[in-house]
Amino acid sequence: MSTLAVIPARLGATRLPRKPLRLLGGAPLVVRVLERVQSLGLADRVVVATETEEVAEVVAQAGGEALITSAAHPSGTDRVAEVARHPDFLRHDIIVNVQGDEPFMRGDAMAGAIAMVRDHGFDLGTAAGKRTAAIMDDPNCVKVVRDDSGRAMYFSRAPIPFLRDAADAATRDALVFQHMGIYAARREALMKWVSLPPHPLELVEKLEQLRALAAGLAMGVAIVDAPSWGEVNTEDDLVRANAHWDSLQTTGTAR
C-alpha cells in the first residue's frame, strides 16, 4: 500500500503569527517538520499543503514539494484531503496527516499510526504516549481510551477514565495515554471523514477526531513509550522548541 505524508502548514495562524516561517534552529518551522518526516523514511512521498505561495516557495527552496490549497479549509484534515484528491496523488492508498507544528514527531508514533491502517485493518490510525496521571487535569493534553482491540473508544480533554475509588489508582494510571496529533487514513475513510458535518461531540470538546468516531469509523491507537515533544503553538512554545533543538545539537541526539 503506497503511503503519502501530507504536512498542512497554514500561514494565517493566530496564536503564533506566520507560524510555518518562524525559525527553529535557523530554518523555517515548516522546513524542520518536512526534514523530520523525510528522515523517517515511512512515506513514499511527502508534500506540504499550504494556502500561500510564500510557504510553498520556502519549501521548494529547501528541496521539498508543496501544493497550494484553498484558504477556506476549516481544519488541517480538510487541507490534507484536498491534496489526496489532486491527480498527482491519487495512486496513494494511505494518507498520513503530520501536523506542521510538530518538528520533533516520534518515528514510532508515525510508524504505529500507519501500521494501524496497513497491518491491522482499521479505517484510521493514530498514536498515543504513556504518561503519568499528572496529565488528567490538563485540558491541553487530550486523553484517549481504547478497547481491547486497540480501537479508540473516546478522546477527551477531561480526565478519562475517571477515578471513582482511590484504591483503583494504579489500574487507572496504567490506562492513561496522551493523544498525539498524527493520523493515518485509508483514502476512502479520509474522504468520508471530511464529507461529514461537525458532530456535537466535536463542537463541545473541540476535537475533530470525534466526528470520525461518532460516524463509526474505526480508529486504531498505537501506544508508544512517551508522547512527542509537543506542538509549537505560541511564542513560549517556540522559545522552548529552540532551546530543545539547541540541546539536541549539543548532545548529538537525534530528534
Q: Which strands sit side by side, in order, in the main sheet?
A: 5-4-1-6-10-7-11
Overall mean confidence score, pLDDT: 94
What percent of residues are in strands? 15-25%
Number of domains: 2
**Gross morphology:** globular
How many helices? The count is 9
Q: Spell out the CATH superfamily of the largest domain.
A: Spore Coat Polysaccharide Biosynthesis Protein SpsA, Chain A
Question: Which sheet architecture does the biggest sheet show?
Answer: 7 strands, mixed
Order of helices and strands: EEEHEHEHEHEEEHEHHHEH
Structural class: alpha/beta
Spans where pLDDT lies below 50 across 5 or more residues = none
Describe how the helices and strands are arranged.
Elements lengths: L2 E6 L14 E2 L2 E2 H12 L4 E6 L2 H9 L4 E3 L7 H10 L8 E5 L8 H12 L5 E7 L12 E4 L5 E5 L12 H5 L3 E10 H9 L4 H6 L3 H6 L4 E6 L10 H17 L4
Parallel strand pairs: 1-4, 1-6, 4-5, 7-11
Antiparallel strand pairs: 2-3, 6-10, 7-10, 8-9
Helix pairs in contact: 3-6
